[in-house]
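My current task is to audit a protein record that another person submitted. I need someone to confirm that the token line plausibly describes how this chain folds. Take the sequence as given and treat only the tokens as open to question. This is what I was given:
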Amino acid sequence: MDVLSDVLSAVRLTGAVYFDVRAREPWVAETPATTRICANVMPAFEHAISFHIMLDGWCWAQLADESEPPVKLENGDAVIFIGGEGHFMSTEQGKRAEPMMDLYYKPTDRALPFLLNGLGGTGKETRFVCGYLGCDARPYNPILDALPRMLVVKASSKGGRLTHDLIRIALEEHETPVAGGETILSKLSELMFLQAVREYIETLPSEAKGWLSGLRDRHVGAALTLMHSKPSEAWTLDTLAREIGLSRSAFAERFTDLVGSPPMQYLGNWRLQRAARLLENQSLSIAQAAAEVGYESEAAFNRAFKKRVGKPPGAWRKARFSAAAA
């Protein structure tokens, strides 16, 4: 079981490239927080991650609250804003602008991306693409808290240049539209994100804490694999510890220290996320979904789901179907 892939699938990670931007120095562009536009750009999701990939040229990128120093992006680099915070990009460090809110909508009469020309002055040309990755934040998405607010993928990284080149090819196809072009771009953005996460894991120091550090730990990683491969199993601290070769107390301490939550709490949260995906199947009853992830009673599942999400699974399912149909 590939735990990272399992999580990305269960939280419905879905990409969309929205803008193909041609700008000339000096230029500045500010992007609003995705809480303001998620319903427009990724309407089937409650959370949107924003990203930009530099195809030609360079710029500075910075969070709108300026809580962290700006990062210089060069040809082939990408930047991902995990929490969907507002941010700005410019060839003049610190230069700000008002977001153009009327740009953020999902078209029904044409394919993405939108082509934006004429941004900036008359200097050297820059080209970059902007997009979003929609995903579930609830019942449980451990990735969102495990990554930095701003994640930079350098072109020199293992997958940076490949993703850059593939997106450029896909954009060239878009200029002379062929079937499936929008889907190709969406899948490439998902690939870019996965590669970024994998490379971030590799850079984590040995003393780092968090869910991603747990993935690469020999014992905690093995426990996570067991939980994800068999979420309905009647796991206990004792059985998990025995399976991975640690004492009960040593396992509980190691898991909690690295992941940030006790093993059984993590398992309970993950079962709810898996159940949320199962509830998308309209032919499956709530009781069946609960049983599939290890709940012995529908009542217990309803209580746990409502406590985590804020509404019972039936109401949540109805809202999900309404959002998907919108």
